[in-house]
Amino acid sequence: MAKKIAKEEMIVDQTTIRDYELVLILPPTASEKGEETLATIKKWLGKDGQIADVQSWGKRPLAYPIAKQTEGIYLFANIAMMPGSLQNLSNKMRMEDTILRHIFLLKKVKKEKLSTKEKGKESSPPKDVKK
Q1: Structure pTM?
Q2: What are the DSSP calls for 31-61, one per residue?
Q3: Per-residue CA distances from 74 to 1, 21, 24, 121 (Å)
Q4: Is domain 14-109 in CATH 3.90.550.10, yes or no?
Q5: How many angstroms separate the CA atoms of 91 and 116, rounded?
Q6: Beta strand residue intervals within the chain, DSSP E
Q7: Domain coordinates of the chain in residue numbers?
Q8: Which of 16, 20, 66, 103 is buried deepest, with most CB atoms within 10 A?
């Protein structure tokens, strides 16, 4: 019975859009903002997602050489897309020569926390009424 519920949850998760953070490392010969690479990624996403905003972290030295490169241009992007298209997009990025490395991070949804006043009201027992 538990396996059946897990499969149903997986189906629901595949149909909802999730927010991801994407970090790209481009070769130092690419443009600082990586417009061409981002246009290619937008084309790959199609209707399954969209790029919300992009930040360029500039050219930085790499910890170790990647494809004989010692520096790379770092880009950070927020992406909203269907979870099912994540693997497909990752495979395409892996095959792209203009992307040295990439990583997707799932953004966790923050749960609303009760304020300290609300916590105190809920957890403290009622006070005795003085006559």
Answers
A1: 0.70
A2: -TT-HHHHHHHHHHHGGGEEEEEEEEEEEEE
A3: 46, 13, 6, 48
A4: no
A5: 46
A6: 18-26, 49-66, 69-81, 101-106
A7: 14-109
A8: 20
